[in-house]
Please model this.
Amino acid sequence: MRRPLRASTLAFVCLALPLAAVALHAQTITDLGAGITAGSQPLSLTGGPDGNIWFTEHNGNRIGRITPAGDVTEFSAGISAGASLNGITAGPDGSLWFCEESQRKIGRITTAGVVTEFSAGVTGACRGITSGPDGNLWFTEPYDDRIGRIAPGATAPCVRNDTTACLLGNRFEVTVDYASAGSGSGAAHVMSFDGARTENDQSVFWWFFEPTNFEMGVKMLAGCPVNEQYWIFVSGLTDQGWTTRVRDTQTGAMRAYTNAIGHLSSTTGDTSALGCP
Model:
């Protein structure tokens, strides 16, 4: 004959069950510090378009990048001294945007580590920043009770050079940044065959490491009679990381397309990329 359960036994069972459930859902936490400068005070972080995590170093005055494997790279070139870096976010242009609180500037860093700073119109100290649904970057100025907005694009004309192509009547500026696991990063170059630049009004080819090694191409078409949109096609023969940016010099609108390091590039066809006319 079974004995009846006592109240104390029931209480033990009731307490033990939730504890067991908690134990089943326990997570493993790993602290990663190797490669981060001592005393730099990592503050804010965000996922990048390259598949890595990007973060600000408030005291170190650097932007950091950490791979999922824990490899850290720090960037400081182009950042004003004593900027007190704060919030950071991935922008619609394929770059990372961040706050320079003490300098009252907004910073932009490409996945290749190229930094540009913007101060015009920034009246307060930026603390937090995010990418908005309208294609702009939005940021807080808490000490002045304001919200700021900055457009990632600009209406400056396209200037053709070794790292910039100008398509469809020079209206669209095309640039590419690349990144690799062991061969560095930088701006891609427009290819040349027998001294002739591989760029026409609709397409351009790019190289990363060697001038004779084709890596990827970009093509644009005016689909305005079909759907009132400009079409963008991007394709590569590489597993290197890259970010392609296309800027409309008339409106400032931008589109960015990315490939993560180690991922074999596929063809992207965007037939609703940028609006006409």
About this structure: The chain has a mean pLDDT of 88. The first helix runs from residue 7 to 24. The two ends are 88 Å apart (CA to CA).
